[in-house]
Design brief:
The protein has 122 residues and is mostly helical. It has one domain (4-109). Helices cover 48% and strands 9% of the residues. A 3-stranded antiparallel β-sheet has the order 2-1-3, with no helix packed on it. Strand 1 and strand 2 (28-31) form a beta hairpin. The protein is globular and about 40 Å long. Residues 112-122 have low confidence and may be disordered.
Length: 122
């Protein structure tokens, strides 16, 4: 099993290579070559207090291995009381972590001349 740090580094390699514009129904997300958005993509916003592990502190906590897969599970158990909610949150976080491995393949298949797709690489 991969560690959070390995997932973080792999995702950083993909996202920090280019700037991406992702068009959603409500807004346009501009993913610059910044690592502070990676914890959000990893689902860290659902751990601890609201947004405790996102942004700069989330990136720092992952890089210094203050947050690990094991601590993710402990934090979910601590902050979500019912077993059903704990199970759903852990499933969602693990799905996000598993899907990040496919970012490179997904982004490499898009190009500038496909505006209907919704992702552009600059």
């Amino acid at each position: 099993m991969r560690t959070l740090l390995q997932i973080f580094r792999d995702t950083k390699e993909v996202l920090c290579e280019y700037d991406y514009y992702i068009h959603t129904q409500k807004r346009i997300l501009h993913l610059t070559n910044s690592e502070i958005k990676i914890p959000h993509l990893m689902g860290m916003q659902y751990l601890g207090k609201p947004n405790q592990f996102t942004g700069d502190f989330g990136a720092y906590a992952i890089k210094k291995q203050r947050v690990t897969i094991e601590s993710v599970e402990k934090l979910v158990r601590k902050y979500y009381k019912t077993e059903e909610k704990q199970r759903r949150m852990l499933e969602m976080i693990h799905r996000k972590l598993d899907n990040l491995a496919e970012l490179g393949e997904m982004f490499s298949s898009y190009s500038y001349d496909q505006p209907s797709i919704g992702i552009w690489r600059i």
